[in-house]
Structure formats: C-alpha cells, structure tokens
Please model this.
Amino acid sequence: MSNESIHPEHKFTFGLWTVGSVGRDPFGQPVREPKSPAELVYLLAEVGAYGVNFHDNDLIPIDATPAEAAAIKREFRKALEATGLKVPMATTNLFSDPIFKDGAFTSNDPKVRAYALQKTMRAIDLGVEFGAQVYVFWGGREGVESDATKDPVTAIRRTREAINFLCEYVLDKKYDLKFALEAKPNEPRGDIYNATTGHMLAFIETLDHPEMAGVNPEVAHEHMAGLNFLHGVAQAWEAGKLFHIDLNDQYPGRYDQDFRFGSRDLKAAFFLVKFLEEVGYPGPRHFDAHAYRTEDYEGVKDFALGCMRTYLILKEKAARWNADPEIQALLAEINADDGSLTPYFGKYTPQKAAALKDHAFDRQAIAQRGLLYERLDQLTVEVLLGVR
Model:
C-alpha cells in the first residue's frame, strides 16, 4: 500500500495510543510488543503522517522518575526533529489509573478531584512543551453505573469548576492553547456525563471563558448512541466550536470499536469528508482508531495508511460528486426557488408577518411534488461504487 499521495498539507495525525496499541482487550492479552514513543514517531513518519498526539502517560509513564522522564522526552524530541512530525494536540489520561475508578473531576472524593487538577496542569505543561495548541478533555470515567452514587447536577458543577480552573491556569501561563471537549455516551462507565456533542456545546456556554472551549467529536462515540455524526460536526462547525476531530468507524449500538476510518459506513464517511473539505476545516484530520488485534506492526502500518488513503479517496469522490452534471441538475431542481416567497423570509417585521398570514398556499399541490431523493441517493451510491 503506497503513501505517495499523502502529504503534510493533509494534516493527518495519529495518537501514540493508536498505532502504539498492543492489541489488549478485556478478553485477551497483548499480541504486539510495545514500542517506545520515539519508535512510534518513526513508524508514523514512514507511512507519511503529519503529526502525533499523546496523553501524558502515553509519553511518560505515570510512575517515571524525573531522570526517566527527561530521557524519554529527549528521545521523543529527537525523533520529532528527525522526522519533522508535529504535535498539534495533547490530552491527559484521567481514566487508566485506579485512583480514577469513580471519575476525576466528578469524583465524590476531593483528594481525587485535586489530584486530577494537578495531573492535568502538569500534562498541559508537557503538551505545550512539544508545541500542542489544542488540548482535549475526554471524561472517560466521569459517569456512573447507578444514579444512586452521584448527583448529576453536582457532577456538572464539579466539571465546570475544573474546566474554569484550568482555563485560568492557561491564561495565567499565557499559553497559546484552546480546549476541545470530547463526548461519549457510555463505556467504560455505564453512563458518562455530557454524553453527546450537543451536550458539550450546551455545557461550554456555561463556562467562564466559553471562547476558549470547543468540541472534539468522535465518529465512534456518536455512532454508539445511534446518532448521525455529520449532523453533530455540522452543528459544532456552525457554532464556531469544531476545534478538533477524531476519525474512526463504528457499528451503532456496540462497544467502542475504533475501527479503521471508512471501514464500516462508507456513505457516512463520504459525507463527513465532503463536509470537512467544503467548509475548509483547518485542523488536523486525527485518526483515533486501532489496528485489528490480528495484526503485527506491518499490519499497523497498513491500518494507518488505510485511514489516510480512504480519506483521500473519499475527498476525490466528493469532488466527482460535485462535478457530476446529473447530480448537480437534480440538486438545482430540488432546490429551485423562483424568488416569489423571498419577501416572507429573514428578519421579522409586523408587515412581513401580516402578509405571510394572508398568503394562500395550495397545500395539496405542494405535497404532491416528488422530491427526487431516491434518484439522488442512488447516484451518490454509484459515485462511491466507482461506476460514475
């Protein structure tokens, strides 16, 4: 599989935790030997990636000594300089260690909440040290199995207090950093607070510095809830809050599968790529996915290349869709507007409202019109199948 068509301007990024996954799952032991962060940088450079992102403990183990941490950072920086890879985003692991078994910012234990703030401040410092300008917050343990155990209003307020505190920390340090909040409905908790992108968008508006916070929607997380990912992304974009994005694939209603991008629902992936390219989304195309457990590290390279190649193929398909004369003629017919009703739209005025109330509509004639959506959707499928 070739990476000749992949270039830095595509801004394809992967997390250390993605290509570094050793294939462990709840029912099976690792199938791949771990690689160091520096080795993973070289692997990503080999397949043509633009950048690499990390949780604090992807880079530096939680119990590392200062000397060990310094050595790891030296090797990581050396690999970045040798390959030219960037670090656009960083985040904190607030879910793996046993201390976070009942959450981090929402924990009922004040010692846990304070430790989570300390750990996040140190992780922010680490991310900024390597050039990150986006900081992602995924509340993987911020939830419950039983609503007897936590009051949801208290949990919301604790989360707000933590994000407000960390915003002030970033401002105090004069870091060039913005926050991207990542939603997920469940797993590893029974239910996770702020379960969807829409929840996060509403929550952001309650912060002391809402301008500093946006969202990091993930394909799998919205599909887990049975939602249309494109719609959540579009809402975030329209609100000016699409600060980062996680690309992968997922069967609805399942556990978090993190499949290779475009490997399950090509039509959904197509419309997502089409949207991102047409609105000019400027951020990295970050793949938060994992190679199958069946793979060795050559298979991991195939996985990473597959994510990037599928994105570029769908980008080309979107251009073909936009240039297809039959599709464009259908769109023109579907969206035909003779302008006769234009005076009724836009900003309200009493005169406009009165005129619209008096307008006579032929309801039955309007309802009888076929909308041609079947034909349009079939032509889309034919573009994707390569027969147009």
About this structure: Residues 297-323 form the longest helix (27 residues). The beta strands are 12-15, 51-55, 89-91, 134-138, 143-144, 178-182, 191-192, 213-215, 246-247, 285-287.
